[in-house]
Amino acid sequence: MGSLEGHLIPGSMFILGAVWWFIGEILQNNRNNADRARRRATLRGSSPFVQPVWYSCRGARLSKLPVEPIVKVIIAVLSVICELLEHDQTALFDDNGEFVAEHLDNYAHSAMYAFFGLSGVVDLVMWYALLPLPPKFDYLVMSLAFWFEGFLFFFHLHGRDELNVRLHTILYIVVFVTAGVFLLAVISDQLMQFMSFLKPYLLCLQGGWFYQAGFVLFGPDPWKNSPSNVEFLGIAFAVHALTWFVVHLIFHIACYRCFIKKPLLNERRLSEESSGEEVDSVMLEEL
């Protein structure tokens, strides 16, 4: 990641993942509205439906395949291979038995990718029922993946200048908050209703800050390590957070009014009509 491309690529992956989660949530809401009555009758007296941490694709064939977990595992494996093998960074020790300092970052990045790959593996285990894991276990493993990402970034700053440290400090704070949100979703059913907004928002915030760090450190005009530049990073992050929040809010409002509000109104109208017919039939029987 010690280059502009090394920050733009993971940043793009996080933003694309956030876009997919946003689309998946909209599609999931449409499916829920379409079969709400059937699901309510099916789950009456049983445990409520728990949305997995990932979203399925639409279509007769793709909906039967865990596409997102498979893609997650493939990307993690390819990322580890690129980190360690592309530039021959596999040597962890030199001829004197000392750690090769230039390769440690690659191993840290590989460990980070491996935990996200582990999350995909757990998703597959739960999908194919290979092991009777408890509900929301996939959320717990996703939290673990983000926690180790923040953990590795936290110890990634030794010997770096203040500008670099401030950039990555903001990044690992966002990552730790994301890990905490996924962990709270495991133990709190009330937070689950906010996950549709928080998941893509926090992922976009993280991906956008990868872009910010890349252009600050390795852009065409890298920033100088000056007190004013270091202080401005806090303002820049606030702008990132506000912008992503407004963008997500606008998209959620637009999707709600276009894809969710009308089906809900139709469902309520049909429910009122059916209840009215039941009342009329009861009155006729009494007469």
TrEMBL record:
**What do the Gene Ontology cellular component annotations say?**
membrane
Its placement in the membrane is given as: Multi-pass membrane protein
Q: Which UniProt keywords apply?
A: Membrane, Transmembrane, Transmembrane helix
Query: Which domain of life does the protein's organism represent?
Result: Eukaryota
Has UniProt tagged this entry with the keyword Calcium? no
Spans through the membrane: 6-23, 107-130, 137-157, 169-188, 232-259
**Which regions form coiled coils?**
none
Q: Which InterPro entries match?
A: DUF716, TMEM45
| Subcellular location(s) per record | Membrane
Supply the Pfam families for this chain: DUF716 (PF04819)
| Primary localization class, coarse | membrane
Q: Does Cytoplasm count among this protein's keywords?
A: no
Q: Which family does it belong to?
A: Belongs to the TMEM45 family.
Give the protein's recorded name. Transmembrane protein 45B
Organism of origin is Desmophyllum pertusum
> Species lineage, top-down?
Eukaryota, Metazoa, Cnidaria, Anthozoa, Hexacorallia
